[in-house]
From TrEMBL:
<keyword id="KW-0732">Signal</keyword>
<protein>
    <recommendedName>
        <fullName>NlpE-like protein</fullName>
    </recommendedName>
</protein>
<dbReference type="Pfam" id="PF04170">
    <property type="entry name" value="NlpE"/>
</dbReference>
<dbReference type="InterPro" id="IPR043176">
    <property type="entry name" value="NlpE_N_sf"/>
</dbReference>
<dbReference type="InterPro" id="IPR007298">
    <property type="entry name" value="Cu-R_lipoprotein_NlpE"/>
</dbReference>
<feature type="signal peptide">
    <location>
        <begin position="1"/>
        <end position="18"/>
    </location>
</feature>
Length: 142
């Protein structure tokens, strides 16, 4: 009986880690107008449930002309929706100032049962965020 219970827990843990492997990785998005404006978003979802985010903005005639914003915290997934959270005492410092608490993003990928030639880029589509410019942003998996 002990062996059956141990086997059950091992299978359960492998299933959980396989699901997080699907979501973990690097995501990026670059919006630009040649020679004028650049906006870059980079998000890394780590296997251990943590994330780091970097936003770089360079606007011609902007004040300031270049801006870097950073954020970090933890992520979890349920039903292809990734929920982000940031702990004020651990995740905030002089560099990391973006608060991803209450941010949610939908994981979008081609269904494995879809055998058509249709190309679906794997992405995160932000649905909710207290960071106003993050709402409805798509960030594609690299």
């Amino acid at each position: 009986m002990k062996h059956i219970i141990i086997l059950f827990f091992l299978i359960f843990n492998f299933t959980l880690s396989a699901q997080s492997n699907q979501f973990a990785g690097d995501y990026t998005r670059t919006l630009s107008e040649e020679g004028k404006h650049i906006i870059e978003y980079k998000l890394t979802l780590n296997q251990d449930g943590t994330f780091v985010f970097h936003s770089y903005t360079k606007l011609q005639g902007g004040t300031p002309p270049e801006e870097n914003k950073y954020g970090k915290g933890k992520w979890s997934v349920k039903d292809n929706v990734i929920t982000f959270s940031s702990n004020k005492s651990e995740d905030f410092d002089a560099k990391n100032t973006l608060d991803f608490t209450n941010s949610k993003a939908r994981f979008v990928a081609k269904n494995p049962r879809d055998k058509s030639d249709k190309v679906v880029k794997t992405k995160l589509q932000f649905l909710e965020s207290e960071i106003p410019w993050m709402k409805r942003i798509d960030i594609f998996k690299v």
